[in-house]
Every structure is written in C-alpha cells, then in structure tokens.
Design brief:
heterodimer, A: mainly alpha, ABC transporter involved in vitamin B12 uptake, BtuC, globular, B: Rossmann fold, 4-stranded antiparallel beta sheet, 10 strands
Chain lengths: 272, 240
C-alpha cells in the first residue's frame, strides 16, 4: 500500500469536504441530540429525497431542489408540531414518509431508478466536484460563524427554554434558526453519506462524546474529533479495499461508540 | 425608596376559572417579600406573568416604573430561580457552563469564580450538573441567577426536594443577599416558619390578595394565620 492515493485531486476534494461535513454535522447534531431531536436529520434527509427526485425529473441540479424542500419541510415540521400538538417523534415519522413517498412517485413518473438516485441515496464523496467542495466549505464556515456568534443563546435555549426566555432570549427565533441550519446541513451532507445514513453523522459522535462526562465545549471537541477521524478513516479505507465510503464511515463511528461503551463499563472513564 | 415592583389590578382568566383576580401590590427596593398561599392559589401564574412567560393578563406589571409589556429593559434586572430546575440528566454542561449561560455580557471567568465561591460551590465548578445533589443544584441555579448582578431575585418555592442542611445554608445565603447586598427578594414558599424568619413582608395569595403587609403584622395576628392555615388545609384536603 502506498500513499499514492493522497496525491489524487479527487481524493483531496473528498477529504476536505469530508472534514468540513464532519465538523458541521457534529456541531449541529449536538444541539439536536440534546433537544431530543435525534431523528430530525433523518427526517429532513428523507424529505430532501423528494427534492432530489424533483430536481432530476425537472432537469434542475438536484441538490438545489433538495435544499428548498429540506428547509421548507424543516419549517413545516416545526409548525405542525406546535400548531396541532403532535409529538416530536410522530411529526418526524410523518415528514420522513411523505418525503420518500413523493420521491418514489416522481421517480416512477420519470421512468424508474437511475444511477443518479443511487448516488444520492448512498453518497458519492469520491465524485465530488470543485464547485461542490467550495459550496460545502462556504456553508460550513457560514453556519459555524452563526453558531459562534449566538453560542450563549443557542446553548441556553437548548438547556432550558423557559429559563432562556426569562433571561430575554428570543427562544422561538433561535429554534427556527437551528432548524433552518439543520436543513442546510443535511442536504450538504448527502454527498458524503447519502440520504440513508445522515442521522449517523448527527447522532453517533455526539452520543459517544457525551459519555466522556465533560463540559459543553470539551464534549463538542471530542465529538468533532471522533467525527473527523471516522470520516477520514472511512474514506481512505473504503478506497483501498474498494468498498462503500458511506457505510465504512458510519461503521468507524459505531466502532468508536462501542469502544467508548467498553471503556466506560470497565470503569476507566473516571468522573471528574 | 423606589418601587422595585408594582402590580396593579392583575387579573388572569383561564377558560373556566380566574387564576388571579384583581391583585395589586408594591414591592419596595430592598424588601424581602414572602408569597404564601395554598396549591393552586395562583403563585405560579403570578410569577409567570412577572417573568414574561404569560402575557394574557389584564392590569399592569412594572419593574422600576417600566411596564414590562412596553419595555424589555427590566429583563436584566431580574434573576430567577425556578422551582425545580429541569434539564436533560446527561446534558454535557459543568457547573461553570451553567452559570456562564446566565451571564449576559462577555464571558467573565472572575465573576463566575466569585459567585461560585460566595455560594460555596466553587469546588464543584468542573462537575457535570447531572451528578449534583438537590441542594447543590439549587445553589448552582441561584449562582446563575446572580451572575448578572440583578436587582431583583425571584425564587419559586425553591426548597422542594432539598435536604435540611442545604435549606439552612440556602436561607442564610438569601438573608445575606438581601441585607448585605440590598437585593430585593420575592420568594414563594409553603414554609410559614421560614417566611416568618426571613421575610420582612408577606403577601398571602389565594387567587385574590388575602393579605399584604409587614410580616410582623401577619404573624402577630393569630386570626389571619388561622384563616390562612384553614384555607390551605381545605385546599390540601381537596387535593387528596
């Protein structure tokens, strides 16, 4: 085995985009997990599948339609939840199946599954273009800046909405902002792991990091490190053994979770 | 002395019942007001209205002469300690993370250290909040409420589920905040003895304001105390 693969420019693009997506997903995912919205990413990804099918059918770049559908769905899910008092998990289930159903109907109109659909379902990080890489970097930068600027408000309203409200934070606006950013993140990440495995990037590194019993910033850093490690290892190993990157990334992530659980049950994770 | 809080003709109607009926009272700056009343007397509704969580009331609520419906400025003058701090048990936040959330200005670690020391929880600053006892948690939430130097501290029956030793410590902290630092305290409680010991004013609430005045007057009037006790006993029986 040589380091030749590190000289390919498609590999550079894949690794750079992969790192950006890994960071973005663990940061947004941490807030979603703590708000008991773990499956929200999954629901948005499935609904954006409808958007992808629409784009392919209409001959528009599918990720643009996916962005639109994902953000609209994110806002609808929040409204439905508030307006009709449907529980969070049930509204996620509704959104998830509506997206896939719409996608399937549109696909059958356009003559069945094509190779394009598969690349969106399972990711295609090695095929990522220069334009996509730039877009991913710009979105990651933008979202991270917003989070840093509103860090206290976002953290406080995640911790306890009522107390955040009392302290003068516009909790509702913050909630919509997080949902909006989650919508953007999901579609951006589709290129890395595909529609079906998105929630793994949002949830697994964070569940793992929370077990280390540290403060908020340290937990975020642990989560980002695990996520970046899984993505880099996943992309490289999958290329070397010619297997699917998406599945490999997620298995690495699950491996870290299992190892952490093992360390913890041996009592080696001392509480501070 | 300025009026720290001025409540006039506050009425809150729920579909079937009036939760608060024409309640008016004034809290002067530096007062320590104990609000007592049976379960369902409207204490939580009163607090929710004062804190901006319930806006469907008639009447006015003013902090330092400003109507809270017209000005948001009062927010920074209030520290609030909830009855039972609710959060995800495994929320990855340390004690200092939680206190820092209360800080409105740029992160000021010295201020956080100072408050933690003042409340005897400095040695806990790097502990996860999910690992703390009820009494420790209560002090963390007081620290969070105090870190902005509020002029008014509002506490909602904050001794539920806290051990006796912590309660004593909590009382002495409140006393000191009020007498040494001049913080106006509004505190709802079930514990008549504690209110008698700590507060200099009492408001007795049972949907309407039953009594409001100096606590000496209330506690020296056996008839009033008896009426209150009967009212809350009836309520107690009613609940069981």
């Amino acid at each position: 085995m040589s380091f030749e693969i590190l000289t390919y420019s498609f590999m550079h693009r894949a690794l750079i985009s992969g790192i950006a997506i890994a960071i973005l997903c663990s940061v947004i995912g941490l807030f979603l997990v703590l708000r008991r919205y773990s499956l929200f990413g999954d629901a948005l990804a499935h609904s954006s599948f409808g958007g992808i099918a629409l784009g392919l059918f209409a001959g528009v770049y599918p990720l643009w339609t996916a962005y639109g559908v994902s953000i609209i769905s994110a806002l609808i899910i929040t409204k439905i939840k508030d307006r009709y008092n449907i529980s969070g998990d049930a509204s996620i289930a509704v959104l998830l199946s509506s997206g896939i159903a719409t996608g399937l109907v549109i696909i059958s109109f356009s003559g069945g599954f094509s190779i394009d659909i598969f690349s969106f379902l399972f990711g295609s990080i090695l095929l990522i273009s220069v334009n996509d890489t730039v877009l991913i970097l710009a979105l990651t930068g933008g979202i991270l800046i917003v989070i840093l600027l509103l860090y206290r408000q976002i953290l406080y309203s995640t911790f306890n909405e009522e107390q955040a409200k009392v302290s003068g934070i516009s909790v509702e606006k913050i909630n919509y902002l997080i949902i909006f950013m989650a919508g953007l993140t999901v579609v951006t990440s589709i290129q890395l792991v595909g529609v079906l495995l998105i929630s793994a990037l949002f949830v697994i590194p964070n569940v793992t990091a929370i077990m280390y019993g540290r403060g908020f910033k340290q937990t975020a850093i642990i989560s980002i490190s695990f996520s970046v490690f899984s993505v880099l290892s996943g992309i490289l190993i999958s290329y070397i053994f010619d297997i699917t990157p998406a599945g490999t990334i997620v298995l690495f992530s699950i491996g870290l979770l299992a190892a952490t659980m093992g360390i913890r049950s041996l009592g080696l994770l001392s509480k501070k | 002395m300025l009026n720290a809080v001025e409540i006039s003709n506050l009425t809150v109607k729920y579909p079937e019942v009036k939760a608060l009926d024409d309640v008016s009272f004034v809290v002067k700056e530096g007062d320590f007001l104990g609000i007592i009343g049976p379960n369902g007397a409207g204490k939580s509704t009163l607090f929710d209205s004062m804190l901006g969580l319930n806006t469907t009331y008639t009447g006015t609520i003013k902090f330092f002469e400003q109507d809270i419906k017209k000005s948001k400025k009062y927010h920074k003058e209030i520290g609030y300690v909830p009855q039972k701090p609710e959060f995800e048990k495994n929320f990855p936040a340390t004690v200092s993370d939680v206190v820092r959330m209360g800080l409105r200005t740029e992160s000021d670690e010295n201020k956080i250290d100072e408050i933690l020391q003042q409340l005897w929880i400095h040695e806990l600053r790097n502990r996860r909040i999910g690992e703390l006892s009820g009494g420790q948690l209560q002090r963390v939430f007081i620290a969070k409420a105090l870190v902005n130097n509020p002029k008014i501290l509002i506490l909602d029956e904050p001794v539920t589920g806290v051990d006796q030793q912590s309660i004593e410590l909590f009382f002495s902290i409140l006393k000191k905040l009020n007498s040494k630092q001049g913080i106006t305290i509004i505190w709802s409680s079930h514990d008549l003895d504690a209110v008698n010991k700590l507060a200099n004013h009492v408001a007795c609430l049972n949907r309407t304001l039953f009594f409001h005045g100096e606590s000496e007057k209330f506690f020296s009037d056996d008839e009033l105390v008896k009426q209150y006790s009967e009212a809350s006993m009836q309520e107690h029986m009613h609940h069981h």
